[in-house]
Amino acid sequence: MGEKPLDTNFDSSEATLAVRIRNLVVVTVAAVLSVLIVLALQTQGTTASLSSLADRSVPLEVALGNEQPTFVEFYADWCTSCQAMAGDMAALREDYGDRVNFVMLNVDNSKWLPEMSQYEVDGIPHFVFLDETGEAIAQTIGEQPRQIVAANLEALLAGTPLPYNRQAGRTSEVTTAPNLGAQGDDPRRHGAQVQEGVN
């Protein structure tokens, strides 16, 4: 039997070349997958952000003087319920923005403490529905399904009672310290001032 035994001694240069080719293939596949993941995340992340919604919102002073009904949202950038609703709020603004003022007031801005006290904001998101004269006719608190907010906006436009007045959903609590002294920089610390002002 004239069969030659299988030569198991590889030339070291051939082995090195095979390892390099394998490593090149692994790196290339990893790079392509990384690029695809980044692109997928960017296309999914095209939903509205709270800051972009706030930038496009109607200033409160304008809304109170233009004789249109107004939808006010008290929010904070750290509020997970507010973030979860941002896409729905953008869609609602698209549907109703020509007939209803959309106002966003950030509870981390002490400028809005009087309004927070007036509407007894102790959890966010907190929504206030104002008629054409600026009078509050209804409030809802917490994460709300888009259909509920839309039904309330339809009723607001029609001048009829809102079907989901005082609706409560999941909220982010606005908690606080007794004063806004040196520790007043914490965005979760100004709710106590709101509570103190509520009768």
What does this 3D model show about the protein?
With 199 residues, this protein is an alpha+beta fold. The protein has helices spanning 12-44, 50-55, 60-65, 80-96, 113-118, 146-158, 191-197; strands at residues 70-75, 101-106, 123-124, 126-130, 136-141, 172-173. The strands form 2 sheets. It has a 4-stranded mixed beta sheet. The chain is elongated. It starts with 11 loop residues before the first helix and ends with a helix.
Structural topology:
Layout: H1 12-44, H2 50-55, H3 60-65, E1 70-75, H4 80-96, E2 101-106, H5 113-118, E3 123-124, E4 126-130, E5 136-141, H6 146-158, E6 172-173, H7 191-197
Helix pairs in contact: 4-6
Order of helices and strands: HHHEHEHEEEHEH
Q: Any low-confidence stretches, pLDDT <50, length ≥5?
A: 177-199
Strand order of the largest sheet: 2-1-4-5
C-alpha Rg (nearest Å): 28 Å
| Main structural class | alpha+beta
* Strand residues, percent: 5-15%
Shape: elongated
Number of strands: 6
**Residue-averaged pLDDT:** 80
Instruction: Kindly report how far apart the N and C termini lie.
Output: 106 Å
Count every helix, treating DSSP H or I runs of 4 or more residues as helices.
Answer: 7
Summarize the biggest pleated sheet.
4 strands, mixed
Share of helical residues = 40-55%
Would you summarize the structure shown here?
The chain has 199 residues and is of the alpha+beta class. Helices cover 44% and strands 14% of the residues.
Spell out the key features of this protein:
199 residues; alpha+beta; 4-stranded mixed sheet; two-stranded antiparallel ribbon; 6 strands; elongated; disordered C terminus
